[in-house]
Write a structure and sequence with these properties.
Layout lengths: L1 H20 L20 E9 L4 H14 L3 E5 L8 E6 L4 E6 L2 E7 H5 L4 H12 L30 H10 L19
Helix pairs in contact: 2-4
Length: 189
């Protein structure tokens, strides 16, 4: 009897999870019977207070990602809050140190800037690493993640179609679906 109940419960759980496992986003229906829209994006915050003279380039790099993808939105962190992404300026080569998807530290290195590389392209490229993109070297200027191999004359700060699609895949709509509102539980239950 217990085995049958357990087996039936597992089968029901599997059937209920099929839409999630198949990658389909299913929004909960509120009491009015209409489907809730998926939220627009997963919001990641960034703190560029340590980016010194590169602050406007960092803000522009974040804005470029916001214009380019729907699955994630980069916003400046509110005062007194902890950011997902810290952006710092230093004298080394630009780099990103992701801790996990959507989180980490970006360094806007003056070494590349002093060699003539574009600050907005650097910013957008390094933020791309935090969004889950690897370097694609060597590569053409049309590929943001080609980085420095595109040459000093390359100022393109925009991700290409494949890079946009990869970030969208890293932040899928199923994870943006709103959770149903909790139901009140009567006292004594």
């Amino acid at each position: 009897m217990h085995v049958r109940t357990l087996t039936g419960g597992l089968a029901a759980a599997l059937l209920m999870s099929l839409p999630v496992l198949s990658g389909q986003a299913v929004a909960a229906e509120p009491s009015g019977g209409t489907t809730l829209p998926l939220s627009a994006a997963r919001v990641l915050t960034y703190d560029a207070s340590g980016s010194a003279e590169f602050r406007s380039a960092v803000d522009r790099g974040a804005a470029i990602w916001n214009e380019s993808v729907d699955g994630v939105e980069l916003r400046p962190v509110a005062s007194g809050r902890r950011a997902n992404i810290r952006v710092l300026a230093d004298n080394g080569w630009p780099r990103a140190l992701p801790t996990y998807l959507g989180n980490g530290t970006v360094y806007i290195g003056r070494q590349a800037v002093n060699q003539g590389y574009d600050t907005v392209r650097i910013s957008s490229h390094e933020l791309g690493h935090i969004l889950g993109l690897p370097d694609r070297k060597p590569g053409p200027c049309s590929s943001l993640m080609s980085g420095s191999t595109a040459g000093v004359s390359c100022t393109n700060p925009y991700p290409d179609t494949a890079e946009k699609a990869e970030v969208e895949g890293n932040f899928p709509a199923a994870f943006r679906a709103p959770l149903p509102a909790p139901r009140a539980v009567p006292a004594g239950d």
